[in-house]
Amino acid sequence: MGRGRVQLKQIENKISRQVTFSKRRTGLRKKAHEISVLCDAQVALIVFNSKGKLFEFSSESSMEDILERYERQAHIGQLVGDGDESERSWSLQCFKLAGKVEVLERNLRNFVGQDLDPLNLRELQSLEHQLDTAIKRIRTRKNQVMNESISDLQKKAKDLQEKNGKLSKKIKEKGKEVAERANCRQELLGLTSLAEFQTQQRPVPSLPLGETFQAGPLQEEAIEARTVPSDAITLNVPPWMLHHFTR
């Protein structure tokens, strides 16, 4: 025999009424959470008991977000209540876009580690997986950029080494040219000095007694240049040697 329909009415017993309130409130909260997860819906639950105590549940990070959205939607409904279908369509589109913006903002806060309390275990695991995937992509891109930078630096270093080698080679060639020119100058100066020295130190040929020296034109000029006038020479000869010259 099936159960009959229970008539809904206030429970007279206060203790039974409080127990029933606690059980139904827990079940209502559970159902609200399930519909928010399964249907991706935004749910706000506000309950006051007989003593005025507040019990609330929000599928979002805060109850204020849902209440503000409710107020905007109610205001839009009042504005477009008497309008045509196109205005309602635009309002609905605006409402949807505003909802997407709110979802994106919530996801952004979750990615930076904020407002994680409303998330359940499954949502936290999904968020962790997304962050791990993002970190792997970032590390891959970072390694790629580092390798490209290292390759560029190695290429620049190689070019600088080649330029340095070319400059060193040119410096060595210039140094050899300068050394060769200096050696040539020293050799020329040495030959000139030797010729002058030999010319100055050339001896006058000796003649036998009774013969006269027949000098050539150049020798005559040299002799004339070296001959001292007789009047410019003063001989101081002792008297005892004069008899040798008078004989």
Can you offer a commentary on this structure?
One of its GO terms (cellular component) is nucleus. GO terms for molecular function: DNA binding. It holds the Pfam family SRF-TF. Helices cover 66% and strands 4% of the residues. The protein has 247 residues and is mainly α. It has a domain at 14-115: SRF-like. The protein has a two-stranded antiparallel sheet. Strand 1 and strand 2 (54-58) form a beta hairpin. It is rod-shaped, with a radius of gyration of 61 Å. Mean pLDDT is 76; it is low at 225-235.
What's the structural blueprint in terms of helices and strands?
Layout: H1 14-38, E1 44-48, E2 54-58, H2 63-79, H3 85-111, H4 121-200, H5 217-226, H6 242-246
Antiparallel strand pairs: 1-2
Largest sheet: 2 strands, antiparallel
Number of strands: 2
- In angstroms, what is the radius of gyration? 61 Å
Walk across the major sheet and give the strand order. Answer: 1-2
Known CATH architecture of the domain at 14-115? 3-Layer(aba) Sandwich
Following the backbone from N to C, one meets helices and strands in this order, namely HEEHHHHH
Helix content class: 55-70%
- The total count of helices amounts to 6
Mean pLDDT: 76
Distance between the termini: 193 Å
Low-confidence stretches: 225-235
Residue fraction in strands: under 5%
Look at the helices and sheets and give the structural class: mainly alpha
Which fold name is given in CATH as the topology of the domain at 14-115?
A: SRF-like
| Quaternary structure annotation | single chain
According to CATH, the homologous superfamily of the domain at 14-115 is Transcription factor, MADS-box
